[in-house]
User: Which sequence fits this backbone?
């Protein structure tokens, strides 16, 4: 029987819904480990681009996913991921990776490699007597179908775009297209989120899908602390 300290929590949802911030906050509040599976797909995408391969070449993507050595921190207070010993924590958020990651994530063999690593991260946490919050697009539906709690985190598209634009501005990574065309940043981010949502929902391998038993949490009218409190409350309800 799981307790709040040993819970396995899956947090899924579309881009910009706040999965990372909410998952980190919930993991921190409960003393759990944290895994950002999106960062893993971005890391493989970075490796494909590093090698000069075409992200639409399925065989190249699969080969890179198999050969790249990924390591990461599961501390919710850290954001570290490495590829072949190189810290790519910041560079995987660049526009080049962001625009290519959906193509890489659609490759079934690459997904199989990363799903294996994700499940192993969960097994390692449980073996150490700790639970873990895992966030992504297919965690509850594919990666961890037996998670103690599955959360489907959503927010209005306009709100998602505004929040993501604010994050990008703070990190100095606004899309180049927004600057070059003098297009409002929020509009540019909204268009990119819609593009990624369509690609991820339409891919053949593990499309973004709400698990049947997931609890829907709508963050449109809630602040970050409020959403974290909702998720922490759900974990305690399910495991106490």
Assistant:
């Amino acid at each position: 029987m799981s307790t709040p300290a040993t819970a396995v929590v899956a947090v899924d949802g579309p881009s910009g819904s706040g999965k990372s911030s909410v998952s980190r906050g919930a993991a921190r509040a409960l003393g759990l480990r944290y895994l950002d599976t999106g960062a893993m797909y971005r890391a493989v995408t970075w490796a494909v681009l590093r090698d000069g391969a075409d992200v639409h070449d399925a065989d190249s993507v699969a080969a890179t996913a198999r050969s790249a050595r990924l390591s990461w921190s599961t501390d919710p207070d850290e954001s570290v991921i490495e590829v072949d010993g190189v810290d790519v924590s910041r560079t995987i958020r660049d526009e080049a990776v962001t625009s290519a990651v959906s193509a890489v994530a659609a490759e079934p063999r690459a997904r199989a490699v990363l799903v294996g690593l994700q499940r192993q991260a969960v097994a390692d946490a449980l073996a150490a007597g700790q639970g873990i919050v895992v966030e992504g697009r297919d965690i509850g539906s594919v990666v961890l179908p037996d998670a103690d709690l599955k959360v489907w985190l959503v927010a209005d598209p306009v709100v998602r775009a505004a929040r993501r634009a604010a994050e990008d501005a703070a990190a100095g990574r606004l899309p180049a297209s927004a600057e070059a065309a003098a297009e409002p940043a929020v509009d540019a981010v909204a268009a990119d989120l819609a593009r990624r949502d369509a690609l991820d929902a339409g891919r053949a391998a593990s499309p973004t899908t709400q698990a049947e038993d997931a609890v829907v949490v709508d963050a449109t009218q809630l602040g970050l602390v409020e959403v974290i409190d909702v998720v922490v409350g759900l974990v305690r309800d399910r495991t106490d």
